[in-house]
Specification:
With 162 residues, the protein is α+β, with helices and mostly antiparallel strands. It contains five helices and five strands. It has two domains: 75 residues, Roll (Ubiquitin-like (UB roll)); 67 residues, Orthogonal Bundle (DNA polymerase, domain 1). Helix 2 packs across helix 5.
């Protein structure tokens, strides 16, 4: 039994027919063509599929599409304004935090939701915020530096210990 749901994705309204078992990730990628959110583990462990739903970072592989009915969702495709990259996207490029790029959209969306709530984090808070996002290419140092730099670019001062 399929059901029609309404989603607001990146500021645009969509009506989509979904199966009860269909995930938000599947709807975003295969019905709306928004392929920035990556399919990784399908168990919520890797974070590659992270999007922001109603202001909170969520693993879209774990969210049933039906439960997202009426929700506002932001994907990586929404961050840049035309050719102008979001400060997080710029920082990831400048600091070499993008390796193969598979984890990058989820890492950036997790970081954006985190910085929206905590605009001046400590390094330990940054590490904790991204602890659920896996990257197989880096040792996370460049990713952490990029997130810290993005916070500074936004006019925030980091609270540094010691």
């Amino acid at each position: 039994m399929q059901k029609e749901i309404g989603l607001i994705v990146n500021g645009n309204s969509y009506q989509v027919t979904v199966k009860p078992s269909e995930t938000l990730l599947e709807v975003l990628r295969y019905k709306l063509g928004l392929t920035g959110s990556k399919r990784g583990c399908d168990t919520g462990d890797c974070g590659a599929c992270t999007v922001i739903m109603d202001g909170k970072a969520v693993r879209s592989c774990l969210v049933l599409a039906i439960s997202a009915n009426g929700k506002s969702i932001a994907t990586i495709e929404d961050l840049a304004e035309g050719e102008n990259l979001h400060p997080l996207q710029k920082a990831f490029l400048e600091y070499g935090a993008v390796q193969c790029g598979y984890c990058t959209p989820g890492m950036i969306m997790t970081s954006k939701a985190f910085l929206d709530e905590n605009p001046a984090p400590t390094k330990e808070e940054v590490k904790s915020a991204i602890s659920g996002n896996l990257c197989r290419c880096t040792g996370y140092t460049k990713i952490i530096e990029a997130i810290e730099a993005s916070a500074e670019v936004k006019g925030n001062q980091l609270r540094r210990k010691g």
